[in-house]
Specification:
The protein has 412 residues and is mostly helical. The protein has helices spanning 3-22, 25-35, 40-61, 65-68, 70-91, 94-122, 126-156, 167-184, 190-195, 199-210, 213-242, 248-254, 256-276, 278-296, 317-320, 324-328, 331-341, 348-376, 379-384, 387-411.
């Protein structure tokens, strides 16, 4: 295998492993409630452990990574994940689970910066850069889907309440294999060190961008979008189990419909945006999301436990509600593209840093709010609540469009 190709394989493999772990939090919340006896608000702290660690890693380490080396960072991240995964079955406690998600968040925050910077080193041409970026994000989704079914399989064969933790042995092996790939794959980072050697300037760029009206509208939309996505994605396995009364393994596996819907929505929106315009398309998506919530959730009330439930006899809502991902998926990449394409290339890194931070904060707050409402009221009430940020996203997008149009007319 050619050496650049080996580096690309290492890149997508490590990002897929991180996708598997970052999106396992909903499954682990379900298992923590069942096996560690924690409440839903306590279980929701796993999202905070993950996302706040991403914020910390993005802010503290992003500007120093070029000097340390992206390849070395990826090796270190994968080895840390492997070690943490091996300790999970040994520790077997909710505290250990919280600490593991802190580790996962730190590693993801570091690896995301290293991954996107490495794409520019491997494929500097605009067209090829876009192609590799799409491949990386596509494999990330594959990692998420693989993780859902892998966790579901181990949960389905659990007989002692601890057997499901064997999944972490597989994760440790995958992470160690990814570290080995990075060790074998050289990466020329000489161009990057000279360009990004001033950490203080990078942080000042972030702060300067953050106070611009267009950035405020953009970050509000990103924050609210991730709040909705994580509220649904994190709590969907628990919703399937406690509201739709699906078995635990089936509840986890059924949540893969939501991930597949997100993948489908991101692929199909690429040609729709050219026909409809970005604002019109996203407003249609938001309206469809609200309609799906209002039409589907009423059918989930009054369902009773059926021990013989199968894929063929599951409630229709188990298949219909996760399709909200089709309409949700285009929002994040399209609005990000709108903002980044309007900025000089030199400011992209600072804006991406802000995106990562506000995305992580949105995911944490969304999961916590949903967990509290789910615990004190009901799963239906928790998911009805996403209607509020859906409306606010629409307002933020309209404001962003107004500001960008005004800026363009002034520049002309």
């Amino acid at each position: 295998m050619a050496r650049p190709a080996l580096a690309i394989v290492a890149l997508v493999t490590s990002y897929a492993v991180l996708g598997l772990l970052m999106n396992s939090v909903g499954t682990v919340i379900l298992q923590s409630i069942a096996h560690y006896g924690v409440s839903k608000p306590q279980a929701a702290t796993l999202e905070a452990c993950k996302d706040l660690s991403v914020v910390a890693a993005s802010f503290l380490f992003a500007v120093s990574l070029p000097r340390f080396g992206f390849r070395r960072a990826q090796i270190g991240v994968m080895l840390a994940i492997a070690a943490g995964a091996l300790l999970m079955p040994v520790a077997n406690s909710f505290l250990a689970t919280q600490l593991f998600f802190v580790l996962t968040g730190l590693c993801f925050g570091i690896a995301k910066v290293a991954t996107y910077a490495s794409i520019g080193l491997l494929r500097p041409e605009r067209e090829r850069h876009a192609g590799l970026t799409s491949l990386v994000e596509g494999v990330f989704m594959v990692g998420i889907l693989a993780g859902i079914w892998m966790f579901g399989w181990f949960i389905g064969r659990d007989r002692t309440g601890e057997d499901w933790l064997d999944v972490y042995h597989v994760i440790a092996a995958l992470a160690a294999g990814s570290a080995l790939l990075w060790w074998l794959a050289p990466l020329d980072e000489s161009r990057n060190v000279a360009a990004d050697g001033a950490p203080a300037a990078s942080r000042r760029d972030m702060l300067a961008l953050a106070i611009l009206p267009s950035t405020i509208a953009f970050l509000a939309a990103i924050f609210l979008y991730v709040l909705v996505e994580q509220s649904i994605g994190t709590w969907l396995p628990t919703f399937n189990n406690q509201v739709l009364h699906l078995p635990s393994a089936m509840s986890v596996q059924a949540s893969s419909i939501f991930i597949a819907a997100l993948a489908l929505g991101r692929v199909s929106a690429s040609w729709l945006v050219a026909k409809l315009g970005w604002l019109r398309l996203l407003l249609i998506c938001l309206a469809a999301m609200a309609a799906l919530v209002l039409l589907t959730l009423p059918s989930t009330r009054g369902l009773t436990l059926r021990p013989d439930v199968t894929w063929f006899s599951a409630p229709l809502a188990a298949y219909i509600f996760p399709l909200i991902g089709v309409f949700m998926a285009p929002i994040y990449p399209i609005v990000s593209s709108v903002v980044l394409s309007a900025l000089p290339q030199a400011k992209h890194a600072a804006m991406v840093g802000l995106m990562v931070i506000f995305s992580a904060l949105g995911g944490t707050i969304g999961s916590m709010i949903t967990g509290i409402v789910f615990d004190r009221f009901s799963g239906q009430t928790a998911f009805y609540l996403v209607l509020v940020p859906i409306v606010l996203i629409g307002i933020a997008l309209w404001q962003l469009d107004r500001i960008t149009r005004r800026s363009a007319s002034q520049a002309a």
